[in-house]
Amino acid sequence: xxxxxxxxxxxxxxxxxxxxxxxxxxxxxxxxxxxxxxxxxxxxxxxxxxxxxxxxxxxxxxxxxxxxxxxxxxxxxxxxxxxxxxxxxxxxxxxxxxxxxxxxxxxxxxxxxxxxxxxxxxxxxxxxxxxxxxxxxxxxxxxxxxxxxxxxxxxxxxxxxxxxxxxxxxxxxxxxxxxxxxxxxxxxxxxxxxxxxxxxxxxxxxxxxxxxxxxxxxxxxxxxxxxxxxxxxxxxxxxxxxxxxxxxxxxxxxxxxxxxxxxxxxxxxxxxxxxxxxxxxxxxxxxxxxxxxxxxx
Length: 297
What we know:
Elements: E1 2-4, E2 11-21, E3 28-34, E4 39-41, E5 44-46, H1 53-65, E6 67-82, E7 85-99, E8 110-115, H2 116-122, H3 126-135, E9 143-149, H4 170-186, E10 190-193, H5 197-210, E11 214-216, H6 227-239, E12 244-248, H7 253-264, E13 279-285, E14 288-295
Helix pairs in contact: 4-5, 6-7
């Protein structure tokens, strides 16, 4: 399982994407020219203070290319020294879904769409050619199944009412806002949750932004979870083939993720534990999972 989170401040963080369009079997990819460096590269840029790497990658791609994208697999990060500091750039496969005309700027003065081999020849840096190899190593067109653990919601000991009614606290509400920003990168159209208030609230900012309903399932609660029935439910949701986000509980989700991977993933998800407010992204195609990633908020 790939894991990404905010790294120590001595590392300069950046995010970007290999954006593709057309036939996934023979795609064109977006390559940009930066006049300051006179180089050709994939769109990327430095994160703002406190910005999540996924949100930063989406913002930088939009600013440099005018493209709206849907994220796919996370690619191997690139590390290099710049100005005496280590820089890490996280990249994703990203499918272009909308293009806004972009005027040339001091940062990017040209964007070209090229077949993969032509892009490889145009790119200035060897690490970008390495990214292209990873880009083509697995399916490009995948469907995301995002699993979220609810955000912070105080403690059971401090809540005297029905535990299903325990709400997110202030930190949890902030996590829910961040989760909405991350989900926007994957554009789920189906939202499923435990009916527990804190789980529904975790998906609510994204649901409100995209005007989506949240479907609740008792088999995702801690009290009614059943190893076999709950897994069957989640596999049936995955098999619907829609981009989906599901929110549940820390006591339930690790076993569910492990079960999904045992049935549908040829690789191995080493650690399926999710911290509060964290998400796992399972990318699948043709009924098989091709990548599993985990992100903190």
